Amino acid sequence: MASPNGDGDFESSLLSFEKLDRASPDLWPEQLPGVSEFAASFKNPITNSPPKWMAELESEDIEMLKELGSLTTANLMEKVKGLQNLAYQLGLEESREMTRGKFLNILERPKK
Fold this sequence. Notes:
This is Protein lin-52 homolog. InterPro entries: DREAM_LIN52. The protein is mainly α and 112 residues long. The chain has a domain at 29-104. The protein is built from 5 helices and no strands. The chain is elongated. The termini are far apart.
């Protein structure tokens, strides 16, 4: 066994005064890419200003977001199907109007 005076020397020889900072990507690789930037964006979670994407929304838009957020999955799917049907109907109507414009020659370029 080591002497009582030698224990302090042994423990002090094990100490390391090396400074390890997380700035080195070689020493501390990021486990999930992008997590550091995401976490840094939430350093101050208590803010009075709305997020950037909400700054341009009007009160009607916010009400619609709240309404859509309160729908069940089935109701939300029904709403999406309704929007898809509406988009299809608008496409058909646009196609008819473009065909009509073609037959009426309103889309031709004027001849110089």
